Known about the structure:
With 348 residues, this protein is mainly β. The chain has three domains: 3-55; 65-278, Sandwich (Immunoglobulin-like); 285-322, no CATH class. Helix content is 11%, strand content 29%. It contains two helices and 15 strands. It has helices at 23-55, 127-130, and strands spanning 3-8, 11-16, 65-71, 79-83, 92-100, 113-120, 132-133, 152-157, 208-210, 231-240, 251-259, 265-276, 285-291, 311-317, 323-326. The strands form four sheets. Strands 4, 6, 7, 9, 11, 12 and 15 form a seven-stranded mixed beta sheet that branches. The protein has a four-stranded antiparallel beta sheet with strand order 3-5-10-8, with no helix packed on it. A two-stranded antiparallel sheet has the order 1-2. The longest helix has 33 residues, at 23-55. It is flat. The chain starts with a strand and ends in a 22-residue tail after the last strand. Mean pLDDT is 81; it is low at 1-18, 21-30 and 41-60.
Amino acid sequence: MEIGFIELSQGKEYLPAVEENVFFTTNERKSMSTKTMFKRIALVTVSALSFGLLTSVSPASAGVSTGLVASVGPNGATSLTVVGADSSTVGALVRLDVTNNDSSTPGLQTGETITATVIGVPATKTIAANAGSMVDTSTAVGLPGVSQRSDFVIYESAGQTPGTLAATAATATSSATDWTKLASDASLLDSGVATIPAAFMSRAADAQIGSANTGLVNKDTIHELTHTNYTKSYYVTIRPRLNSDVMNKGAYTFQFQLTDVLGVVRATKTVTIDFVTTNALSGATLALAQNGTFLAGAALETYDTAATNQYVTATLRNRDGGLVRTGTGGAPTLSVTLQTKTTLLRPL
């Protein structure tokens, strides 16, 4: 019988040869092979993770528009009464101020939008029939289903003059809004392109303001500097829709909603506007305030030229303490009559 041997440690031990497999030797090799496999897997995993850490670089954060202000006047007014002859000629201008969180990218960024809708109607109207979409200017009011439109259309508007940025507050300038710059089918449209060919008319009336629209710096009370410029102002004109019946009906509420590139709502603001045909139907109030003392026989001077601090102010407000404008965006003209009393009043 043949004698075989297996080398163990430093010596030699002779064992009888067997026909079966030597399991303890095979198991030891399997154990070594398994450990080697685990080590290889571990090394591959670590290498992959290391490669991922080395090659995965986060992009620089882009600016995001986080603030929105909607106003119908230079001082942030949100209520307006428009006095005009009829629904075919009246309009109202709204200023939309968008604030970004990065001064290097003021205003709206790519993919960000402000969507305009009607969300409130007078008591004689219904949300279902008279509120909702302000998109396009050709669809008449009152159609059912997906064609349903609100009582109003909206035009993205141009024609304003921007302020200027500078390093100091003394050298930067703010520019007043011209509230008479109302857009229509034929003029002052802001479609995001230099000219307004027929193909782009719909873009200026899609009820969505985006980064392609014209944003202006330092409008009205906004006064930012070159290194703190976060805000841009955009303009839209609201007009009654074809076949709508909005005159002398009451106030409508218009919503402007800012969403980011992912569709997340960042801000929602509203303004309230009503349209009337005459001053008598406006519900406006006039408040008088006197400054200084007027003496009998003293000459009256205009406020701009008076050397003394004596004057009377008249403030016209609408039903909510808001503004009153004409159908073309101008300030109403007040009629003033001065009466002179020839006899002195005895003090009480």
